[in-house]
């Protein structure tokens, strides 16, 4: 079932966030990622060795989500996969709107236990109407409200490029690459295995977002290919979509299956669908950044499919004459 706009509005701009499972061994990375968060931040941790450091940071810690004394909008789950259903149960009981599941080891692991646990948390979320981002993902970067998932993401480089990616590493690299190139980023979302929130939902949402002028997407494989290409056909004529497809070769398709559990599909089908939709295909991080820069800085073309870029005025005149 498609994710509703109001669900994503709440997910991307929460007022109260709780991080479940932040640990000293990881230098409390998820809590530190939220150090600029403009809303209220809570921790959920039961290990006394970890609680000391959390309280030293001045962040209130509780033993359970249900113990937090106010409604929670967004929960980051960073616990081992076997504990994930129990955290999800508490989130549902608490009335949480969105759960970002950083936890991995589900269907992408290829194990029976991983597949069964993914099916279990999917059924729980669907029955409760809970929006889940992930599992196996880095979640949301939103500089407007001070949310980040990586230390290198800047809060002062806000613009109108939006990134959606199944890979957390690519979402982070695209965010930092665009910001380093002088392009402000509106939001970035890493959505991993996409058990609830998938790429068509994000494409359709950001097509309506007035703060998005260009969408950069890294996709390994949507759950419903027909729905994905239908969304792409609807969105690409309205806003440019830079599409980087992961898993273009047999080796890449095997890697995609073990990365996000995606069925990558054939390159020929993807190429044809991308052309028909009017999206812009790229094949690397560098190409994606370059395409986004061109779409951000250059005025729209008015001619017939040939563009000339020169190093000087004279060169451009000469090349125009040649063409």
Jot down its keywords.
single chain, 323 residues, alpha/beta, six-stranded parallel beta sheet, six-stranded mixed beta sheet, 12 helices, 12 strands
Q: Can you give a write-up of this model?
A:
- The chain has 323 residues and is an alpha/beta fold.
- The chain is 40% helix and 16% strand.
- It is built from twelve helices and twelve strands.
- The protein has helices spanning 5-12, 29-33, 48-56, 84-94, 112-128, 168-180, 199-207, 225-235, 250-260, 267-277, 285-297, 313-322; strands at residues 16-20, 40-44, 61-62, 74-77, 98-101, 131-133, 139-141, 161-165, 185-190, 214-219, 241-245, 280-282.
- A six-stranded parallel beta sheet has the order 3-2-1-4-5-6. The chain has a six-stranded mixed beta sheet with strand order 7-9-8-10-11-12, sandwiched between helices.
- α4 (84-94) packs parallel to α5 (112-128).
- The termini are far apart.
The percent of residues in helical segments reads: 25-40%
Strand line-up of the largest beta sheet: 3-2-1-4-5-6
Shape: globular
Q: Unreliable runs, pLDDT <50, ≥5 residues?
A: none
Helix tally equals 12
């Amino acid at each position: 079932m498609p994710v509703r706009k109001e669900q994503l509005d709440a997910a991307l701009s929460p007022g109260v966030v709780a991080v479940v499972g932040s640990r000293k061994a990881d230098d409390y990375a998820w809590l530190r990622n939220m150090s600029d968060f403009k809303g209220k931040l809570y921790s959920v941790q039961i290990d006394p060795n970890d609680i000391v450091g959390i309280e030293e940071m001045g962040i209130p810690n509780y033993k359970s989500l249900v113990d937090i004394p106010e409604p929670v909008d967004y929960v980051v789950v960073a616990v081992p996969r076997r504990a994930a259903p129990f955290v999800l149960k508490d989130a549902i009981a608490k009335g949480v709107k969105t759960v970002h599941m950083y936890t991995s080891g589900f269907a992408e692991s290829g194990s029976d236990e991983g597949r069964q646990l993914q099916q279990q948390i999917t059924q729980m979320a669907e029955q409760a109407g809970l929006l889940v981002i992930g599992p196996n993902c880095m979640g949301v970067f939103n500089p407007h409200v001070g949310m980040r998932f990586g230390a290198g993401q800047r809060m002062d480089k806000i613009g109108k490029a939006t990134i959606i990616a199944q890979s957390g590493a690519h979402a982070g690299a695209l965010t930092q690459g665009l910001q380093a190139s002088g392009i402000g980023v509106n939001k970035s979302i890493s959505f991993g295995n996409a058990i609830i929130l998938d790429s068509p939902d994000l494409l359709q949402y950001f097509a309506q977002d007035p703060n998005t002028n260009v969408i950069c997407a890294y996709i390994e494989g949507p759950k419903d290919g027909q729905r994905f290409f239908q969304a792409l056909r609807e969105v690409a004529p309205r806003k440019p979509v830079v599409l980087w497809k992961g898993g273009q070769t047999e080796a890449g398709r095997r890697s995609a299956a073990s990365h996000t559990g995606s069925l990558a599909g054939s390159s020929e089908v993807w190429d044809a669908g991308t052309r028909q939709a009017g999206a812009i295909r790229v094949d690397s991080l560098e190409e994606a950044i370059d395409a986004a820069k061109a779409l951000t800085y250059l005025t729209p073309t008015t001619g017939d499919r040939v563009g000339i870029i020169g190093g000087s005025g004279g060169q451009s005149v000469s090349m125009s004459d040649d063409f």
